[in-house]
Write a structure and sequence with these properties.
This protein has about 375 residues and is of the alpha/beta class. The protein contains 13 helices and 14 strands.
Length: about 375
């Protein structure tokens, strides 16, 4: 099987950066979408493009990577969660006490049109640094940091020779217990995993019995789980890493209970349990992909009703400026939220109830309505670790 996959790899591993390279996109469409590409850059590869059914204008894989004219709507802002506020040194975010994010690059195997960090792919971006020395020193000085998430961009697009020293230097910091790698490479280009034994050896070396590496995979739709992708996931597991999956809820891609349930089920069957479903951040250009909070919660719950066991493990949440806010439930008139993680300790486990607002896309839409019915922050009554 691997020999067949490698043969396919030779034909389908070219990166695409121009709309005129998309054979399934009519010339008039290319011209019409160039304005979008000029603002929010396009990038994909032949393997991922081969998953698109070009005869279907609503194809979900197409929606993930091919520009949409709706992206030009003036909706949202580039840094929707104000990540800059939590950036003490260049290339490192520290929002929650135990977790730090290292932005190790600004490139992905393909660019999701709904990316919440699309600002990193713009020429004026200066948030990412190729020299992570300052970030590593910050982590060394903060023993409360037990989890480090490598992100960007996509860390697995780095050559193994560049990724290995990052992992090695993190492993030299005793208080760093978990290294997480946020990556869509298993979906976008599984050949990166299959064709590089040195990558698997590196992961195996740094994912130890007591200090594991977690791969935070990003599968958005069941059709991304091809035989090649499944092979890549299996190799990552055999290399000693722990895999989970997270996805935003994306209009036209997975905002359907049957599709989302299918994704949850297939991932759990493979040993990659669902972790988070995120409501699409109100990032500039993301209006075509956003699903209202209450509609999204109902899709999520209907999907969970269709699955059992480990497939039910996902939480639905918003990565808000103030913290990770989980959507807990709805009644006929109210919606309930809880801070799953909070940037400020006094916000920890805070529970809130608001009057329902079917037009709300983000937590701010509820706060601005001043319709809060209940607000309880138990942190004052708890002993905090």
């Amino acid at each position: 099987m691997l020999s067949q996959l490698k043969h396919l790899n030779k034909r389908k591993n070219k990166y695409l950066t121009r709309l005129d390279q998309l054979e399934g996109l009519a010339r008039e469409e290319q011209v019409g979408l160039q304005l979008v590409d000029d603002k929010f850059v396009f990038r994909s590869n032949e393997y991922y493009q081969s998953l698109i059914d070009w005869s279907d204008p609503n194809d979900p894989i197409r929606k993930i990577v091919v520009p949409d004219i709706g992206e030009m709507d003036n909706w949202g802002r580039l840094d929707a969660s104000n990540e800059d506020k939590y950036t003490p040194v260049r290339g490192l975010e520290h929002k929650y006490p135990s977790t730090a994010l290292l932005l190790v690059n600004e490139v992905c195997a393909a660019y999701c049109r709904f990316c919440f960090r699309k600002r990193l792919f713009m020429n004026e971006n200066d948030e990412v640094t190729k020299d992570i020395t300052e970030g590593l020193e910050y982590i060394r000085r903060h023993p409360e940091i037990t989890n480090v998430l490598l992100t960007g961009g996509d860390p697995l697009i780095l050559s193994t020779s560049k990724l290995d020293p990052i992992l090695r230097k993190l492993r030299e910091i005793d208080h760093v217990q978990i290294i997480r790698i946020g990556s869509k490479i298993p979906a976008f280009n599984p050949y990166r995993i299959i064709d590089d034994p040195s990558l698997l050896a590196t992961l195996r070396r740094h994912s130890t019995k007591e200090k594991r590496i977690y791969i935070m995979a990003h599968f958005n739709h069941p059709r991304e789980l091809t035989a090649v992708a499944v092979e890549g996931l299996d190799l990552l597991m055999k290399a000693g890493t722990i895999l989970v999956n997270q996805t935003p809820l994306i209009r036209g891609v997975n905002d359907n209970p049957d599709v989302l349930a299918n994704l949850f089920n297939r991932l759990s069957f493979l040993g990659v349990p669902p972790y988070y479903v995120f409501l699409c951040r109100p990032t500039l250009g993301n209006k075509p992909f956003a699903v209202p909070v209450e509609a999204g919660f109902q899709v999520f719950e209907q999907a969970r009703m269709r699955v059992s066991g480990l497939a039910k493990r996902a939480r639905i949440a918003m990565s808000h400026e103030s913290g990770k806010i989980e959507v807990l439930g709805l009644t006929g008139t109210e919606i309930y939220f809880k801070y799953h993680r909070a940037a400020e300790p006094q916000e920890s486990a805070r529970f809130l109830a608001f009057k329902r607002n079917p037009d709300a896309f983000w937590f701010d839409d509820y706060e601005e309505s001043r319709e809060c019915l209940f607000d309880y922050a138990p942190a004052e009554n708890l002993e905090m670790c």
